[in-house]
Amino acid sequence: MKKQVTVSAPGKLMLLGEHAVVYNRPCIVTAVGQRLSATLEIISENRLELDAKDVKVTGYIKQLVELGQGNIPKGANFVEMAVKNFNEKFKINSGIRIRTQSESSSLFGLGSSSASTVCTIKGLAVLFDIKLSNKDIFKLAYKTVLDVQGKGSGFDVVAAIYGGTLYFVTGGKVIEPIEIEELPLIVGYSGIKADTVTLIKEVAEKASRYPDLIDSIYTHIGKMVELSKIAFLAKTWPVVGELMNFDQGMLESLGVGSAKLSAMIYAARDAGAWGAKLSGAGIGDCMIALTPINKISDVEQAITRSGGQVIKVRTNVEGVRIEK
Ligand code: PMV
What we know:
Helix content is 40%, strand content 25%. It is built from 9 helices and 12 strands. It is globular and about 60 Å long. Bound molecules: (3R)-3-hydroxy-3-methyl-5-(phosphonooxy)pentanoic acid.
């Protein structure tokens, strides 16, 4: 049995299908570096010790018997629930120290919570010599996401586990790699923090008032995802871009667009992007623009001029891995 291990996992960017994927439709997600890494160590005290400086958690201590109870700081809840769920399933009953470190700011919404959840589960499995398949890790990680935020599709943890670019249906009903070498994508940060849980609730509230309308929007988004999967595989980027624009229209109908995101999206399209849309829950966080190589600098400048911050992310990167 090892005493210490370091694992790392990528973040995620939703390409198409957000919101609809919470309701049994497919989405396409790509894994992104900046990675998050976690060092896990067995300790003799019967407690969890956590340092996650990027999310302002230092010197956090919780007794094993109290995991998941009481006031949990926002930056600690995914790791704590992951340890709790792992412990309940495999009865490791051992103290554990975890330190996480992220290559990027958690502000961008690029999936540091999902990456830390996956790193915790993978790290514990390595430490205690428990063989887990990717699907096993997914089940525990998805349960953790649902425990913390109540609702969600699991698209973020699947990206952290499998890496690459994936076609994914709610709760892991389908997990299919889309083999592509590169993705000509520009990412712009809006400067506004998106609140995923609140936005899922707001869309659900709208669906309770307009059930047929919202359901047909989800079905349309699902069709756009299906068509874009074919276009991704054929690398027909103009088609992917056009479908991204369609999808953005649907997301506007759901009420998760914002003036800031729209300014950046239209600026990117006007500067020559094949397509541009918000990525994730909406209102804030990031927008993405699929862009021909010869237009990259024009699109980047346009996003900056419209008040966005271009962030360099590597897409389609490797999933969770052991570092040392
Ligand atoms: O806010 P993000 O980037 O975590 O994206 C949320 C995407 C949703 O479809 C709204 C939720 C989900 O779990 O799929």
